[in-house]
Amino acid sequence: MSLVSYETEGDVAIITLNRAEKYNALSRDLGDQLAAAWHRFQDGPERAAVLTGAGRNFSVGADLSDPPEIWPFSPDVGVAVDKPVVAAVNGTCVGGAFILVQFCDLCIMAEDARFIYPEAKVGISGGLISSVAARIPHKIAMEFMLLGEPLSAQRAYEVGLVNRVVPQDELMDVAMDHARRLAAMAPLVVRTLKRHVAATLPKGPSELAGLARRDIEAIRSSDDFTEGGAAFREKRPPDFTGT
Questions:
Q1: Model pLDDT for residues 41-57, shown as the tens digit of each residue
Q2: pLDDT tens across 106-127, in order?
Q3: Burial grade of 1 (CB within 10 A; 0-12, 13-18, 19 or more)
Q4: Which residues are within 8 A (CB) of 214 and not within 5 positions of it... i.e. 6 or more apart?
Q5: H helix or E strand, kind and range, residue 140
Q6: Structural domains of the chain ordered from first start
């Protein structure tokens, strides 16, 4: 079974963390599949996406038996995504899963859902969470990050982290309504504005490092990288294609 499902409804992609039996814990394999889903969305015809979790929870965060790096499958960090993404948060959203939500453009949250960032309590962090301080007031961000206490849907709405709080049974309908409306907007304008906002928002050190690694690893996995090495060994001029 796929750990990340990708479905389409018209111009909207529905990307679902699909490991409900493990509460959608983020493993390395799930991360690889989510990165592939972001690439598919960015390169495909869909104009907006909804990111959600299967079952009762969005995700309990990193699978500590197989912990992944979060940046490679975070939208706008590991994968450049300039189309709009709506997070539909159900149940519990913990740690690295919260980071995925913070990099989405809109967030619809079930009224009984909650965010938790417990990494200061367990002694693990990749630092990507620091970017949340560019998205909500500083003191609220520090309280959330450093104390590790749950942030209710209502409180998340009050501090500007969430666009709408709705009953659980309305979550996907409302998220899809937002995504369909985004998909109906002028694509060039939407994508340009998203890129300009990304250039405007301050970025934490881990986010900047992730962006740099994304670019470097794209070079290392390119045809030109292989061609350059082959040409050197064969003592001939390289035939670069830009791919």
A1: 999 999 999 999 999 99
A2: 999 999 999 999 999 988 888 9
A3: exposed
A4: 71, 72, 77, 78, 79, 80
A5: helix 138-147
A6: 4-203 (3.90.226.10)
